[in-house]
Write a structure and sequence with these properties.
heterodimer, A: mainly beta, globular, B: mainly beta, 6-stranded mixed beta sheet, 4-stranded antiparallel beta sheet, 12 strands
């Protein structure tokens, strides 16, 4: 059973461009979480999604950031008009249904660098 | 709100030394508590967990006991190895309905031969 997959692993964008980060959860997992890790800091929750639904986006900036988890395909975290402060590692985690988020399995992360 | 306070690092130990990384939390009720480990360039891996008071989580020689009276979940290992060098994160999942994890700032451990 493959683990959580994220791509790309590294992404470089110029200020003002768009960044699209993808996350494929583990097989059988229908819940996805996105976290952001700034340099030398812990992970901060951004958004929690189930298939076709955003359940909790309380940690996501109101501007420029959006997330989706379509019925088919990976979850996408989209950052429009990136700024230098968006440079961070973005981690996706997934959990199976009925686990209540107790078991979250993390992907390797996407390291975004904004130049 | 829910939060985790973790001992700041970095921590440098010699091989076979005893390790303690302190973690305390603030939460209502009985949250679930976790330790995650992050090796260089990789994502987080669940190291151990405890879901109720007095539970002891253990894995790969690491242990942590859920202490409700002191709101703590300190990580310990009796004899560290060079391969334990990594960043360790304490985390909690609250009971208020949100499923997300709250993380501490991480403690970088370096074990020297």
């Amino acid at each position: 059973n493959a683990g959580v997959m994220q791509n790309p692993r590294h992404l470089v964008r110029r200020r003002g461009q768009e960044a699209r980060l993808r996350c494929s959860p583990m097989k059988g997992h229908s819940h996805v979480y996105w976290y952001r890790q700034l340099p030398e800091e812990g992970l901060k929750f951004m958004v929690y999604l189930q298939k076709e639904n955003i359940i909790d986006e309380s940690g996501m900036p109101k501007e420029r950031f959006s997330a989706e988890f379509p019925k088919e395909g990976p979850s996408i975290l989209r950052i429009q008009q990136v700024v230098r402060g968006d440079s961070a590692a973005y981690f996706c985690a997934s959990s199976p249904p009925l686990a209540g988020g107790i078991e979250q399995y993390f992907g390797p992360g996407t390291r975004l660098t904004v130049t | 709100g829910d939060s985790v306070t973790q001992m700041e690092g970095p921590v440098t130990l010699s091989e076979e030394a005893f390790l303690t990384i302190n973690c305390t939390y603030t939460a209502t009720g009985y949250p679930s508590l976790f330790w995650y480990v992050q090796y260089p360039g990789e994502g987080l891996q669940l190291l151990l967990k405890a879901t109720k008071a007095d539970d002891k989580g253990s894995n790969k020689g690491f242990e942590a006991t859920y202490r409700k009276e002191t709101t703590s979940f300190h990580l310990e290992k009796g004899s560290v190895q060079v391969s334990d060098s990594a960043v360790y994160f304490c985390a909690l999942r609250g009971v208020t309905g949100a499923n997300n994890l709250f993380f501490g700032t991480g403690t970088r451990l370096t074990v020297i031969p």
